[in-house]
């Protein structure tokens, strides 16, 4: 008999929103190692707000967010060593090249052999030719690739991504799906908000449909069906 692993990320009757006003129904979710979860729902339904609460960037209105069984605190070293968030509002260091950016991130998080890891990431995210470029010299899609690569330059057991497919070309989108599946394959938990049915299909993710009346946990096919109806 297989024993279910403990959740690495969990919400209990979680209410998220702004100025005391919730943006969606309460969320009950348990994310275990090796699981992929797609957070889906129409524009403005609350997906990014939920992700921000999962990452401890936004305090819950009520209810709980737990990472590894403890209240989420983004300032805690252990949390930062295990949980990586890739949101849309991340900033770049304007004076650093793409490669320097990634090396700084990897070294800052104590990654062994940072230079080698970074060179692999530059290849993986199709940025080898841009390794010496400043962020301002990158296209918007290349900047997006750099943002993603920076997330993967860190140690991680949980990955939270907000619409990671944004601005990527079809080839990189397909690569991204493979990368996320590999992450789950080595035991990481992956949670990503998305509007992209192909990303959900390729990753085999289950889904959380965010709504005003309820937030529904769905299996893979039901998540795909729900995504097709989202508008
Ligand atoms: N900083 C903020 N202050 C107040 N309200 C906000 C703030 N950010 C977002 N909202 C509101 O919260 C609601 C949910 O926004 P959120 O960005 O979480 O939606 P989303 O599901 O991620 O949308 P999309 O699919 O467009 O990315 C929206 O009505 C939005 O206007």
UniProtKB/TrEMBL annotation:
Regions crossing the membrane: none
Gene3D superfamilies per the UniProt record, alphabetical: P-loop containing nucleotide triphosphate hydrolases
InterPro entries: AAA+_ATPase, ABC_transporter-like_ATP-bd, ABC_transporter-like_CS, ABC_Transporter_VariousFunc, P-loop_NTPase
Keyword line: ATP-binding, Nucleotide-binding, Transport
Domain of life where this protein originates: Bacteria
GO molecular function, one term: ATP hydrolysis activity
Ranges of residues in domain ABC transporter: 3-230
Pfam families, per database record: ABC_tran
Stored CDD domains: ABC_DR_subfamily_A (cd03230)
UniProt-listed PANTHER family: ABC TRANSPORTER ATP-BINDING PROTEIN ALBC-RELATED (PTHR42939:SF1)
Protein name: Glutamine transport ATP-binding protein GlnQ
Species the sequence originates in: Oerskovia enterophila
Protein's gene: glnQ_1
